């Protein structure tokens, strides 16, 4: 078609030929076209409107045959009677040739064909009163109404199909703008920086303790009787400082301080942080683990050198003294380290020490000073080497920083992705306290601490350029067996996750949990609706809680053997995460409270275990659209492995 701008109106069926489809256009063309497209070989012109009413080629050929048949009948009835090449009208002075008659016949045949088609079509040709242009009009009011309704339906269909991606794009832009923290003016910056304000996220931090009721009987082989006490309720507060944006706002560096504020209104009736509770003495457990592992290689040679050097420095020892010294040293051979452990425990403090201790709820969790066992060791060490620094501080399960300066001294710099330029990476770690791969400070520099001022000893701030030897020299250890198992980078900090996660693979989230110094997988548990918002419930992956020791893979169907967990030294019963490498050999294990989803053996060895999935399971409820956690329940239990504490009789 030449001229004019086509406006699609409706897809219509040509009545004359069922099944035939023809596009109808509203045309304001110049009325010129080529009839050749409609009637090959005729060479006669037709208007653009004429052309648009012609059916597709297969139907056209059928109708042309019909027209030819009709034209033959028309020709028989109306053909001219003369045969001469030239006919003269003498009266009017007009000369008509056979060619003129042939063209008149063709025009009449075409008009008959067009009139026949127009009589069965929805539209008819109307004369436009300007410049000999023509348009097409509806024959009947019902055809007009149907066409209008179909046009409206097509309009709303196209609008509906196009508006959905437009709205989705607008929502994604809005979510991205809210989540990205590319500057201090970003909408979520203030609540990310600190939650001390009135509109900051509220983190309820509740502690429950298992108070041991029969410590003396346990040392004689009885089953521990535990009573759960709690909650001791706190509010977890944070403040991030030393904030700096890098790489055009795509990365964010900072240090962070956490501290815990007592919340009496939510705590159990009559409970206070000063309540005295009986729990494992972790210093005694650490002493046992150290002596058992290093007695033959370190403790025994040191004790022998000490005894013989003391004898050589003074007068000649008597026979009784030598016999007593030999008797004492003989205790250190084999399981004799137990004798030395008993000596240390008995000499620690006015009334000695035990594998169990009674302390305040606050000290048991947040740490304390002037431990009696460490005080004894400090006195002995400084007697032999006065220049050797040592403190009596016992670190807690978590750190309760007293100020930004305290946190600055004891922590390193972390860096996360802001989501700018790549929203799928929002809140992913580049590194945590200068570490892209996890190392743990287990031997802090004692010279940096002080008992009198209660200054906590620390390791030097981690430097990623250190060699492995330098890392060990600075007091850090590599907690797992393979570097790939200690990856922190590309794991979420759990404050936000990838938004717009629709596929099941995207719903598996990798998160670094600093409480257990481990990256874990969160898998999709369930989807539910809360106040019109669709939330995905995520939980700890079942595979992460399985054992690498196949002898524990029973009952069959409930537990199985996961060889990958050998990298984390998980060789005990299923349901435990081995934390011993993180605590300098201290036999600590993390699990769900009351050993939920753990092996039955764990609950059978204790009295007082009553697991309940509703109150003991760990989960995160995430908005799939924004990736924002609406509710987080991080429920972890820390347990110490109680081994054989039989003590020998000493010849004293």
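-> sequence recovered:
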């Amino acid at each position: 078609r030449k001229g004019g701008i086509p406006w699609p109106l409706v897809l219509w069926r040509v009545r004359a030929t069922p099944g035939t489809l023809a596009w109808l256009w509203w045309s304001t063309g110049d009325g010129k076209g080529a009839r050749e497209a409609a009637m090959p070989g005729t060479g006669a012109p037709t208007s653009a409107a004429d052309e648009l009413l012609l059916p597709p080629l297969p139907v056209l050929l059928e109708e042309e045959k019909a027209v030819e048949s009709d034209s033959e009948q028309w020709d028989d009835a109306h053909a001219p009677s003369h045969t001469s090449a030239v006919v003269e009208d003498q009266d009017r002075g007009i000369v008509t040739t056979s060619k003129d008659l042939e063209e008149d016949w063709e025009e009449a045949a075409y008009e008959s064909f067009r009139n026949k088609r127009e009589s069965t079509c929805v539209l008819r040709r109307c004369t436009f009163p300007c410049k000999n242009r023509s348009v097409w009009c509806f024959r009947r009011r019902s055809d007009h109404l149907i066409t209008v309704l179909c046009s409206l339906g097509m309009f709303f269909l196209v609008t509906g199909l196009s508006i959905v991606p437009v709205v989705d794009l607008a929502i994604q832009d809005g979510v991205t703008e809210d989540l990205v923290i590319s500057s201090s003016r970003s909408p979520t910056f203030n609540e990310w920086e600190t939650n001390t304000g009135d509109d900051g996220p509220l983190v309820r931090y509740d502690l429950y303790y298992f108070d041991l009721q029969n410590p003396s009987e346990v040392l004689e082989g009885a089953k521990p009787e535990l009573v759960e006490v709690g909650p001791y309720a706190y509010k977890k507060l944070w403040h991030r400082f030393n904030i700096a944006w890098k790489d055009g706002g795509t990365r964010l560096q900072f240090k962070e301080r956490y501290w815990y504020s007592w919340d009496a209104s939510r705590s159990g009736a009559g409970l206070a942080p000063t309540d005295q509770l009986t729990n494992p003495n972790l210093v005694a457990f650490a002493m046992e683990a150290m002596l058992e592992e290093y007695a033959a290689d370190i403790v025994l040679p040191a004790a022998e050198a000490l005894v013989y050097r003391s004898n050589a420095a003074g007068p000649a020892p008597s026979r009784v003294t030598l016999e007593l010294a030999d008797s004492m040293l003989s205790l250190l051979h084999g399981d004799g380290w137990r004798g030395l452990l008993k000596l240390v425990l008995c000499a620690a403090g006015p009334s000695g020490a035990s594998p169990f201790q009674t302390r305040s709820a606050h000290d048991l969790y947040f740490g304390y000073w002037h431990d009696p066992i460490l005080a004894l060791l400090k006195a002995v060490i400084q007697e032999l080497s006065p220049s050797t620094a040592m403190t009596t501080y016992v670190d807690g399960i978590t750190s309760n920083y007293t100020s930004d300066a305290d946190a600055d001294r004891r922590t390193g710099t972390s860096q996360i992705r802001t989501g700018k330029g790549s929203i799928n990476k929002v809140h992913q770690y580049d590194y945590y306290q200068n570490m892209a791969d996890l190392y743990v400070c287990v031997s802090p520099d004692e010279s940096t601490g002080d008992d009198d001022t209660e200054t906590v000893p620390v390791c030097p701030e981690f430097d990623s350029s250190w060699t492995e030897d330098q890392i060990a020299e600075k007091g850090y250890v590599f907690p797992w067996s393979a570097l790939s198992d200690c990856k922190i980078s590309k794991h979420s900090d759990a404050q936000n996750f990838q938004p717009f996660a629709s596929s099941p693979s995207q719903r598996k989230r990798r998160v670094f949990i600093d409480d257990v110094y481990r990256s874990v997988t969160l898998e999709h548990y369930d989807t539910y609706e809360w106040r019109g918002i669709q939330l995905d419930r995520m939980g700890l992956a079942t595979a992460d809680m399985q054992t690498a020791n196949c002898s524990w893979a029973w009952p069959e169907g409930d537990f199985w053997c996961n060889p990958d967990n050998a990298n984390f030294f998980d060789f005990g019963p299923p349901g435990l995460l081995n934390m011993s490498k993180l605590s300098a050999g201290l036999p600590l294990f993390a699990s769900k409270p009351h050993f939920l989803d753990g092996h039955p053996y764990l609950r059978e060895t204790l009295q007082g275990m009553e697991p309940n999935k509703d109150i003991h399971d760990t989960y995160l409820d995430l908005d799939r659209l924004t990736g924002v956690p609406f509710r987080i329940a991080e429920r972890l239990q820390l347990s110490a492995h109680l081994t054989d504490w039989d003590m020998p009789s000493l010849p004293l």
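Residues 502 and 624 are 7 Å apart (CA to CA).
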